[in-house]
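Service request form, structural biology core

Requester: graduate student, group of Dr. S.
Request type: structure prediction, single chain
Budget code: on file
Notes: please return the result as structure tokens.

Sequence provided:
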Amino acid sequence: MADLAVVLLLFLRLFSNSKADGDFDVRRHLSTVTRYGAVKDIVDDLFIPSDIPNGCTPIHLNLVARHGTRSPTKKRMRELENLASHIKEIIKNAKERNLSLQKVPAWFHKWESPWKGKLKGGELDIKGEEEMYQLGISVRERFPDLFNEEYQPDVYPIKTTQVPRASASAVAFGMGLFSGKGSLGPGRQRAFAVTSESRASDTVLRFFDCCQTYKNVRKKQEPAFDKLKEPILTEITSSLLKRYEFNFTRQDISSLWFLCKQVALLEWMDDLQMFIVKGYGKSLNYRMGVPLLKDVVQSMDEAINAKEGNQVPGSYEKARLRFAHAETVVPFTCLLGLFLEGSDFERIQKEEPLDFPLKPPQKRKWRGSTVAPFAGNNMLVLYNCPANSSSKYFVHVLHNEHPIPMPGCGGTDFCPFQVFKDKIVQPHLKHDYDTLCNANLDQPQPKPETGKLSQLFRWLFGWGNDDTSCHRVEL
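Core staff response, request fulfilled:
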């Protein structure tokens, strides 16, 4: 992956609208393929985190985390090898036409895909292992009172999907969390259990894969979205053709985008697609995650019952740790109502459509690089505050290890547990998973609303005639 970082910086020079100068850091603008370390400490400077009152102690922790940095999929690796071959053809053709190559960086002549010759892809890489290992250490150090007991699988259950990069992330996290707690090897590691449900029935962590309604909708949406990307890729292709006189294709630009997503408009385009097919763009995207939300709340209810019942340590669960995918973390983030603008939370409660993420150069909260980078995570920590007169239990919400405001709880990160259940959780519970995902599957499916999408994109990409046109479209 170190080679990729060099390639990213080199490819910056290809784009005429590059922001390589100044404080622009390409590593923070790769949408959902951003590394955790590049963005984990990016927070809202205007938000002041809550001071946890004296006497409040954490009694339970819920973690929902994405797997760490992974290698490209086999499809992507083949695509990059094809790109390298086509670049060689472009250079050869330019020489045969006696075109000037002075503006072309020397590295361009010898570039090859960093994954050339690899037969498999998508697995957790070394950087991803380190991210998850360090996250485990960080969680233990931040909440020592929660992880001071002897390991038992019922006290610290670790759950993952049946995808290898997710289960490997769970193992790396567990090695960090329990390092020095056992007797295995120089690091005094200890064995721990990692469990998973079948892919075919995992409605808690792979609800998106078990929801047939969602799969039908997404299958119809994505081709239309891909078609609407073409003008952006065509514009950049044309720009490069004018600059270098090279015959770049749209596929070349798409592949270059995979390597170097620094262009603000293209980054926003990825973020917009994530909004539409995984996030707030359609309520089905996140409401199919209700089984996960129920699981989180159930674990906190059980922790409260254990506390009220004065159960002895080691007889009840203190942390529930889950490892999955962006398709899990993004909907869960939406269920909590995070990264919303203004009054959007109230609109979600009323099931009203939302405005789409603002187009650059305007600022926006919804960014794939911060919402769901590699190893991105949400932690919900349950606190017992016996001295508080109004509520004994509070939920502290952290995103990528930092406190984050919850619009559903008055914009605070430290919310009375009952308020959390009433204002944030309860409105979602009226949506039954089976009804959302499997109802009326024998009925003819509606055609995708390409007209609305086309209208939306004409406005967003500046193709409309009126800059004040409304872009509130319900998908």
